[in-house]
Amino acid sequence: MRTDGGLTHIKYDHYYYPRIIELKCPNCRNYARAINETVPNEIEYFMDIARFGKIWNFKCVSCIKEYEINWSEIQKIDLWYKIQVRNETVWSWNAKHLDLIIKRLKSENIKNHSWAFFATYINKKWLEKIKKKSDIQKLENYLIGKIKK
Ligand SMILES: [Zn+2]
Predict the structure, then answer these.
(1) Separation of 64 CA from ligand 1 center, angstroms?
(2) Which of 42-46, 81-85, 93-97, 103-107 comes out lowest in average pLDDT?
(3) How confident is the model at residue 15 (pLDDT cuts 50, 70, 90)?
(4) Ligand 1 mean position, distance from CA 22 (Å)
(5) DSSP-derived secondary structure letter, 25
(6) pLDDT in tens, 21-73
(7) How many angstroms is it from 139 CA to the middle of ligand 1?
(8) Domain boundaries, the chain
(9) β-sheet bridge partners, residue 47
(10) pTM exceeds 0.85
(11) Within 10 Å of residue 88's Cβ, how many Cβ atoms?
(12) Cβ contacts of residue 94 below 8 Å, gap of 6+?
C-alpha cells in the first residue's frame, strides 16, 4: 500500500490485503462483510506474495446476498467506515483498522496493536489535519456508532 494521498482506497496500490473488509452492501446499503476464508482467523492481513487466494466471501446479513468477490470488485464497493473530517475522507478496512488510526491520531502507544503495521501507511494529511480533540472525538463516536459485532 502506498502512502500518498487519494480520497479512497481505490487509489492505493496494494501489497497487503485485509482478511476482513467491512462494506456497505451495494444492494441494500446495510452492513456487509467480505472475508477471505483462505487466510487463518488470527491473521489480520496478508502480503501480496503470500499464497492466499485473493477471493473474499461477501455476505450481507440484511438482504442475505452472498457471493464470491475478488479484489478489484471489492474496490468498487463502498467501505462501511468512511467519514469526512477536516475535508479529509478518513476510511478504514474494518473496525480494528479504524481503531488503530484513531489511536495513532491520539498519539497513543500502538506497538502491540494488531494493526500496528499499518500505522506507517496512514495518510499523512490525516495526521497533519486531524489533531483537535473534538475531531478525534468525532471519529471515536463514529466508530462506536457504526461498529458491528
Ligand atoms: Zn444487502
Answers:
(1) 6
(2) 42-46
(3) confident
(4) 12
(5) -
(6) 999 999 999 999 999 999 999 999 988 777 778 899 999 999 999 999 999 99
(7) 25
(8) 16-74, 82-148
(9) 16
(10) yes
(11) 17
(12) 18, 20, 21, 22, 80, 81
CA 58–ligand 1 middle distance (angstroms):
10
How many Å separate Cα 82 from the centre of its chain?
9
Distance 131 CA to ligand 1 centre (A): 35
The one-letter amino acid at 54: K
- Listed in sequence order, the DSSP H helices in the chain are 71-74, 95-105, 124-129, 133-146
If you measure from the C-alpha of residue 91 to the centroid of ligand 1, how many angstroms do you get, rounded to a whole number?
Answer: 20
Say if CB 106 and CB 92 are below 8 A apart. no
Q: Residue 35 half-sphere exposure, CB side, CA atoms within 13 Å?
A: 11
Q: How far apart are CA 32 and CA 80, in angstroms?
A: 8
